[in-house]
Amino acid sequence: MEVLSSVLGVLLAEPCRALFTFLRAKIKNPFYFNANLRALHKDIEDLMERRDEVNEHLEPAAKVGQTALPQVRQWLRRVERFESEPQVRCFRGELDLSARNRASSCCLHFSRLSNQVAYWLNEARRLRGDAKFLEGVAGPDPFPVRSEYIPAPTIDDQATASRNMAKVMNMLSREDMKRIGIWGMGGVGKTTLVKNINNKLTSPSHDSFSIIIWITVSNKTQETESELKKVQKLIADRLKLTLTEEAWRQGLMTEVTLKVEVLNEEEAWRLFYKSAGEVAILGDVEPLAKAITKECAGLPLAIVVVGASLKGKRMVELWKDALNALCRSEPLIRGRIEDKVYNPIKWSYDVLPNQCIKSCFLFCCLFPEDFKIDVDKLVMYWLAEGLLEGHQDIEEVMHRGMTIIEILQDCSLLEQDNRSAVKIHDVIRDVSVWISSSLEKECKSLVRSGIGLSQIREGELSAESYKRVSFMDNQIRELPNVVAECPTVSTLLLKLNKEMVEIPDQFLAAFTSLKILDLNDCYLIKSLPPCFDQLVELRALVLHYCKHLETLPPLGALAKLQVFACSESNIVTLPQGSSACTVETSNTLVHRMKEFKKFKLSIGFPSSNHFFLARESKKNEILWGIRVWGERMEWLFVNTTSINFHICEGLDIMFDKLVANSDEVGCFDTVQIIYIYSCTDWVGIRNNAKFDMLPNLEDISLFNLTRLSCISDLALPLGLKFSRLRCIYVESCDELKYLISLGTTILSLVKLETIQVYYCTQVEELLKFDQSSYPDSVFPNLKKIKLSNCPMLRLLSEENVACPCLENVYVQNCPF
Q: Helix, strand, or coil here: 247?
């Protein structure tokens, strides 16, 4: 028995000791939970301070060609892994000293939590102890490498991205190519593309470059320039290829640019399926998965993140909720979508030059998805909101507006649809709705456009201090009779609610600070409420296509009104409070209201006999859908700086009469801009002027003139020399063969800066010379040429034409 006891004692001693140690730890860790948690907080902070110290020593070392020692690099990677652990992040920021009390209701959970704290405390102390680095942190790089592999998602299964990479690789093979710019909207895959290019060049089969350098450019200009100079000095002649991430400013000029476009439908679905997994093709889930993919609008970052967030989710309800959230432009899963998709895209918004431009951009989210936003109307909205203050006339306003649009397009926040319209990408719009509804108090918006609403919920407008409200493009029939005061709302868009029959007086009276009211295409409205004269801040009133609207309330109190548009309405009597100067016709009465400080007037009637203009004004005028050949129109050209002929009849006859009477009326030196849209009965001008009738013309835009073969067909009869012309825009002129013919009248275009030609299916070349001799410099100031979808275009000109100031050439779907 004694022997047996001795044997059992020997056999059980070690297990019992281990068991005691285990139980002691289990009991000790919960007992010391608070103390361990405090110690963990302190040790983590000490560790992060030590890491920052090491990095601070590495920065000056890198500038003199030294790199981190191997043990330092390994330690920094360990610290990075430690810091990224979810539990460590939780203990650092979210778990306070009352956690024990909160967890005490579940002993098992509290025990596990205590053990985790103890474990990470030991890890933090081990890392802190390994950070002594007696030999220093940096030294000469003993094995300089030609390039470094950068982990990145493959693009081999994406045809568009693969084509883009092939284009870049081909450009890199050219000796004359020094700088290549790759650009596109946030999340479209620019960084992924460049990482794949880097990795392809890293392979032994590509040895064209002696060294490849990846640089992440800071958004601090002075730092960037300083660091680049030091890098240049360091690598000197060895520098062959530099890959720059986030080339955020145009100061880094490129010789050629490549825009990264979104994925097509098939590529987008393949990428989503790859991210979401097999669950995406289950019977009830697949239609929802494809609808969600469509909502991501071809943006790779959105597709990957949304797909990954739904991976393994088999409940159809979760997929329906995700689709509804995307359709409502709401973050799908709070935190993940914002961090992974919205915030990277928001960076493009954050770096916009000023708050005014940011506010202009956020206005665009008021329109429905895939909506073509008319440029002129968009600028008008900005003007009425007070975003373009300080500009004296419509030309200055439009110039500033176009500059802002160009800035937003350069940042890939807006896309050009055609000459007169822009679009906002669906995901970019979702981000802008998110920003304007939750982050920007100055532009706080309620966006309910294009979602099929039939009514406005009670209390929806009173919950927040909104500045902008959009219910456009819905099926709203009735508005609430009473709403709470909305004293901060400056913009109210109700346009395209074609079933709306009435605007209650008490509804409109709630918007005491309203600057913009847009009722465009509200067909059934017959009258406006009496409270209208209380909207003393109103600057823009848009009543286009209110076909049943017959009367207006008194508008005399609206002294700040700048824009009044009522074309295609049925107004037969005008309001009280107007000035005495009126013109009355058989069915229409139009008043000139001296109180109006108008920048733009847009009125359309059956013929020019029903059109009246304030003769003393110098402004931009639109003639929409009228017959202009019925009477002499000299008064129009004398009193305006910009004329827009939109679907007008008899335009060539009108010009013939102007030429015939030119000796009597002289030239029209006030006109600077002419825009002719879809005047399809154009035949030609028979008479020829003896002098330049539009000597100060700066901008000419022609759209859908189906019988025009050359701009000279319009210019020569009017004697136009284009001596001040800065911009030419031509679109959808199907019989256009040449843009301009240079000869006896038009010798050169010395002021011309921009040529844009789109969708002209028969144009063969831009310039045709009618004589053997021509000036050495036809285009001394030409800066930009944009050509798109001209399948017959062979060349710019048969002659060698110098363009010494040319900065930008954009060619798409043109064979030459």
A: coil
**Which of 50-59, 264-273, 596-605 bottoms out in mean pLDDT, i.e. has the lowest?**
596-605
Query: What's the N-to-C CA distance of the chain in angstroms?
Result: 105
- Cβ pair 513, 488 in contact under 8 A: yes
pLDDT band at 631 (very low <50, low <70, confident <90, very high): low
Helices (H) and strands (E) in the chain, counts: 24, 28
Contacts of 45 (CB under 8 A, 6+ apart): none
Task: Give the CA angle between residues 85, 151, 47 to the nearest 5°.
Answer: 30
pLDDT tens, residue by residue, 211-243: 777 766 544 444 445 555 555 555 444 444 555
- Nearest Cα to Cα of residue 601 among 580, 584, 618: 618
Mean per-residue pLDDT, 254-279: 77
Contacts 24+ apart (CB under 8 A), 769-777: 769/741, 769/742, 769/743, 769/797, 769/798, 769/799, 770/741, 770/742, 770/743, 770/744, 771/742, 771/743, 771/744, 774/742, 774/747, 774/748, 774/799, 775/747, 775/748, 776/802, 777/748, 777/750, 777/802, 777/804
804 within 8 A of 776, measured Cβ to Cβ: no
Task: Show the tokens assigned to 537.
Answer: 């801040």
Q: CA-to-CA distance for 104 and 405, rounded, in angstroms? A: 59
Q: Which two tokens stand for residue 286?
A: 């697949």
Token pair of 637 as six digits: 């050209």
Q: Which contacts (CB < 8 Å, 24+ apart) does range 508-513 have?
A: 508/532, 508/535, 509/534, 510/461, 510/483, 510/484, 510/485, 510/486, 511/486, 511/535, 512/485, 512/486, 512/487, 512/537, 513/487, 513/488, 513/489, 513/537
Q: Which CATH fold would you assign to the domain 340-443?
A: Arc Repressor Mutant, subunit A (1.10.10)
Residues 90, 494: Cα–Cα separation, whole Å: 46
Q: Taking 90 as the threshold, does the pLDDT of residue 39 lie above it? A: no
User: 632, 635, 332, 389: which is closest to 515 by C-alpha?
Assistant: 389
Tokens 């709070």 — which residue?
334
Q: Which residues contact 756 (CB under 8 A, 6 or more apart)?
A: 419, 727, 728, 729, 730, 731, 784, 785, 786, 787
Describe the crossing of helices 70-84 and 33-63 by its angle, rounded to 10 degrees. 140
CA distance 320 to 163: 35
Structure tokens at 113: 């939590």
Say which residue the tokens 């928001």 belong to. 346
CB atoms within 10 A of CB 78: 15
pLDDT at 789 over 80: yes
- Residue 679 CA to residue 726 CA, distance in Å, equals 23
HEC string for 1-31: CHHHHHHHHHHHHHHHHHHHHHHHHHHHHHH
What digits encode the pLDDT tens for the residues 56-68?
Answer: 888 777 766 677 7
pTM higher than 0.70: no
Identify the residue with better confidence: 335 or 688.
688
pLDDT of residue 1: 52
Average pLDDT, the chain: 74
Alpha-carbon span 767 to 759, nearest angstrom: 17
Distance CA 502, CA 508 (A): 11
H or E element in which residue 584 lies: strand 582-584
pLDDT at 438: 80
State the pLDDT at residue 534: 86
**CA–CA distance, 133 with 118 (Å, rounded to integer):** 26
Helix (H), strand (E) at residue 542: strand 540-542
Nearest-angstrom CA–CA distance, 144 and 657: 79
Name 602's Cβ contacts closer than 8 Å, sequence gap at least 6: 544, 565, 566, 567, 622, 624
